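Hey, I was hoping to borrow your eyes for a little while. I've been staring at a protein lately and its backbone has me curious. You're getting the sequence in one-letter code plus the fold written as tokens. Would you mind checking whether the tokens look sensible for this chain? Here's the protein in full, and shout if anything looks odd to you:
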Amino acid sequence: MAGIKYLALLRGINVGGNNIIKMTDLKSCFEGMGFTGVSTYIQSGNVIFGSEETSQIDLTDKIETTLSSRFKYDSKIILVPYPVLDSVVNNAPPGFGDDAGVYRNDVIFTDTTIKPDEVLMMLNPREGVDEAWAGEFTMYFRRLTSRASQTRLTRLISLPVYKHLSIRNWNTTLKLYLLMNGNAD
């Protein structure tokens, strides 16, 4: 794969019957934009690709404009260069992702307009249910599985900041990281 490896996290596709996009069509669209090594992972809109473009702002704009035109919806993506995903995985809080039976673990990716610590202040995690950490590029969030219905994570959906976020569970984040490293196993 030439250039920089990127991960595009598409928001609002294949959810609740809205903005249905087949992954083969999505892959074809990214290839049509001239990107290399394009692959997708699961139906929630995760696209790995290579590009010579170094400006995240220009690249994000190009992708959102093309997706909006091709698939007839208001496209919004979070663009994650490989070094950022590497940092997200390797700088997770100690123990994050462990005890999967006890906790649900999510990574909240932010676009370039908002910082993870700003999101953390808006979220106000529920004591005894939620734990959250602001990283450099993402927010790490875990909640007790047994009390998941009491989490404040769902509060994010009602906040204006939600349109600047994309949430992936920890297992998906790790799988995307392995795929970007060429380790599909």
